[in-house]
Amino acid sequence: MTTHGLVVVTAGLGRPSATRLLADRLTEATGRHLAEAGREVEPTVIELRELATDIAGHLVTGFPAPALRRALDAVGNADGLIAVSPVFAASYSGLFKSFFDLLDPTVLTGKPVLIAATGGTPRHSLALEYALRPLFVYLHATVVPTGVFAAADDWGSGASAGTDTLPARIDRAAAQLAALLPAAARPAAPEERVVPFEQQLAALRPD
């Protein structure tokens, strides 16, 4: 069974957080679509609120703390990415942008990314198209067609025929991400052969 590494970056500031809740729903839906195709997912969730101090320090010093280094490496090694930010002042949060500013500019090239956001009212939903999507296009990621925005009222709404509800949008976006994840299993890292020191010395001696 093919196993995929999925990294979920969530920039919610509260606990509990609507941003984290949306990220969890998207992760669950993506896993369900992959399971239906006989594929597995190994999700890694990165809570940026827990890395806020490290992110600020890296921006100033240029050196990441160990926890931040692991988060950046996880994004770089992932098969796919779910990125979710709250909307502040009609755009993604500063914490969200600061984290992605720290990535190598080429690390997301060709990587499937599902973008999502949360906000108080539906009028913030366009931030997906004029803020988040351009950011990941700039980073050369492959952004899934459906972005998911969840307003406060979406969490209390139920599905109804003919209505594009939050569950329907989550399911559609997750299906698109699952379809973009590579079909082949990730190759295992090659084992490094250790040559004994005596053998290295012998190779240096003249015949």
TrEMBL record:
GO MF annotation list: oxidoreductase activity
InterPro entries from the UniProt entry: CE1759_FMN_reduct, Flavoprotein-like_sf, FMN_Rdtase-like_dom, NAD(P)H-dep_FMN_reductase
Keywords annotated in UniProt: Flavoprotein, FMN, Oxidoreductase
Segments crossing the lipid bilayer: none
Signal peptide positions (record): none
Annotated EC: 1.5.1.-
SUPFAM superfamilies in UniProt: Flavoproteins (SSF52218)
Source domain of life: Bacteria
Enzyme class: oxidoreductase
Gene3D superfamilies per record: 3.40.50.360
Pfam short name (any one): FMN_red
Protein name as annotated: FMN reductase
UniProt domain NADPH-dependent FMN reductase-like: residue ranges: 7-155
